[in-house]
From TrEMBL:
Key words, A-Z: Cell membrane, Membrane, Transmembrane, Transmembrane helix, Transport
Ligase as UniProt keyword: no
Membrane-spanning ranges: 89-113, 133-156, 205-226, 247-272
The protein's name in its UniProt record: ABC transporter permease
Bilayer topology annotation: Multi-pass membrane protein
Matches recorded under InterPro entries: BP-dependent_transpt_permease, MetI-like, MetI-like_sf, OppC_N
The keyword Transmembrane is assigned to this record: yes
Similarity section: Belongs to the binding-protein-dependent transport system permease family.
Segments forming domain ABC transmembrane type-1: 89-273
UniProt superkingdom: Bacteria
Subcellular location: Cell membrane
One of the GO biological process terms: transmembrane transport
Length: 288
């Protein structure tokens, strides 16, 4: 019993010390967890359909009936903001996961196989030469708009950045003694990549994934605000702000609340990324 009590106290102490060392990271985790709950239980948190139009309640200020007010069509802004959290979180998570997966695959090929390096990196440099927003807008203009199209349009500009990071890490790892030893004993290439190189990419890629997620959420909002992202009838933070931009002087609340949610979400993701970076690289944290 005493051993168990000591073990539990030790665990609590470690958690407390981790919280004291990285309070911003845990704040980011708490905010993202809350937003996830809001997105999942959006139908329960809002009794009003975000698509319902009520011409008699156009541009009403925040009140007991409409917490965040209404927009130019009389739609409840609170309901639309809550449902819009789903779009932003899905886009952020999907873009981060797919971009990292593709970036790891392509970057490992470029970094480990010198013959492929030149061809792969020139393609990546070409993609990086085009600004993210312009490339995403061009892709959205070619293909039919929708959530999947938005995700793909954001993924393509993000992949080259992951590829460059992975390539640089693989080049620095492939000449390490343990990799050379694995080659000497006849270990197959795919096993070397999976067992000796891939695990060493985990820490920096976790940090990179958080920044990609934050960038994807902002890009989706920008595309929707410009009218080339999520379809207008689908509630998203960018669409809500786009609907309210013409009524800024008389109904500022239409843009205020989705803007606050967007800012807090991106701030939480960046805090999580900064905390992971400091935790996984203590030397860099001391320098900063």
């Amino acid at each position: 019993m005493q051993t168990q009590a000591i073990g539990s106290m030790s665990t609590r102490k470690k958690l407390w010390l981790m919280f004291r060392m990285q309070p911003t990271m845990y704040f980011g985790i708490a905010v993202l967890a809350l937003l996830t709950v809001v997105a999942i239980f959006a139908p329960l948190l809002s009794s009003i359909n975000p698509l319902d139009i009520n011409p008699l309640a156009r541009m009403k200020p925040p009140s007991a009936e409409h917490i965040f007010g209404t927009d130019a069509l009389g739609r409840d802004v609170y309901a639309r903001v809550v449902w819009g959290a789903r779009v932003s979180l899905v886009v952020g998570v999907a873009v981060a996961l797919v971009s990292v997966a593709l970036g790891v695959l392509i970057g490992m090929l470029a970094g480990y196989f010198s013959k492929l390096d030149m061809a792969i990196m020139r393609v990546m440099d070409g993609l990086m030469a085009i600004p993210n927003i312009l490339l995403a807008i061009a892709l959205m203009a070619v293909f039919k708009g929708g959530l999947v199209t938005v995700i793909i349009a954001i993924i393509i500009p993000e992949v080259p950045r992951v590829v460059r990071l992975v390539r640089a890490l693989v080049i620095s790892i492939r000449n390490q003694p343990y990799v050379e030893a694995a080659k000497a004993v006849g270990t197959r290439t795919h096993k070397i990549l999976a067992m000796h190189i891939l695990p060493n990419l985990f820490a920096p890629l976790m940090v990179q994934a958080t920044f990609i997620a934050a960038s994807a959420i902002i890009t989706e909002a920008v595309l929707s605000f410009l009218g080339v992202g999520i379809p207008p009838q689908t509630p998203s933070w960018g669409n809500i702000m786009a609907d309210g931009r013409n009524f800024l002087s008389i109904a500022f609340h239409i843009i205020l609340f989705p803007g606050l949610f967007l800012a807090v979400t991106v701030l939480a993701v960046n805090m999580l990324g900064d905390g992971l970076r400091d935790m996984l690289d203590p030397k860099l944290a001391k320098k900063i």
